[in-house]
Amino acid sequence: MFCAMDRPVPIQTVHLFGILNNLLIDLLKSLNEEDWNKPTISPLWTVKDIAAHLLDTNMRSIATANNYSGKPPENIQSYQDLVTYLNELNAVWVKAMDRISPQQLIDLLQSTGKPYEDYLTSLNPFDSANYAVSWAGEEHSENWFDIARQYTEKWHHQQQIRDAVNKPGIMNRELFYPCIDTFMRGLPHAYRNTPGKLGALVTITISTDAGGNWYLQKNTSGWKLIQQAPGKSADAAITITPDTAWKLFTKGIKPEIAIQQATIHGDKKLAQTMFSLVAVMA
């Protein structure tokens, strides 16, 4: 395990993967045949499809640990090209996994969970990641951010399953807050083309004990997340629930639906940009 004593990791998630995987295994073991075939908020994917996708992320990371990455993508000229490539890659895997049983999926998720976690733990959090967090506008990312991104994938896909079968269990401070805190790192990129006066402040509140407050301010170089409220009134203030937040940022609901579910004070046009944040490759 790598230990960086002199630099705090901005968002600590690596210790949560094992917890989340154990909860996933317990959840999947509790499902009946009807549950496995239920549709989810993710278009075209059933509960079983999402479980298969979660296995894919384990397997690919373990392959990376073994210095294997498969064939590189061709003709990636834009962000949309990359999204299309990833969607096709995911679809091929999920289609192939249709032929294996739910019990096999559980067994594979259980056996690959620890090697996957061990690989992430072995990484220097401040080294350059193999993949940039593109939805945050980064061309190069440090490992801690890519690991946090992977955590958001694990969390929101498990939540999609839980939502479909009505079995809550991970919407709490320990597991949800690191996910939403990572999502919020995409706000400056989402606001990059949004005009605002120098010093303009947008506050975002995710309600309940699982959520928190985030502050986005316009400075001379653009919009930046700041750690604390600057002692001035917000130009736009937005409050949404955790349930609305995770669905919005993963394209589970449309922005106009989320806006209807939100409380907005101040400049509504300035606030509206927040609802365009997409924190997945889509």
UniProtKB/TrEMBL annotation:
Domain of life, per the record? Bacteria
Domain Mycothiol-dependent maleylpyruvate isomerase metal-binding residues, every copy: 24-161
Signal peptide range equals none
Under the heading InterPro entries, the entry gives: DinB/YfiT-like, MDMPI_metal-binding, SCP2_sterol-bd_dom_sf
Gene Ontology molecular function: any one = metal ion binding
Q: Which SUPFAM superfamilies does the UniProt record give? A: DinB/YfiT-like putative metalloenzymes, SCP-like
Designated name of the protein: Mycothiol-dependent maleylpyruvate isomerase metal-binding domain-containing protein
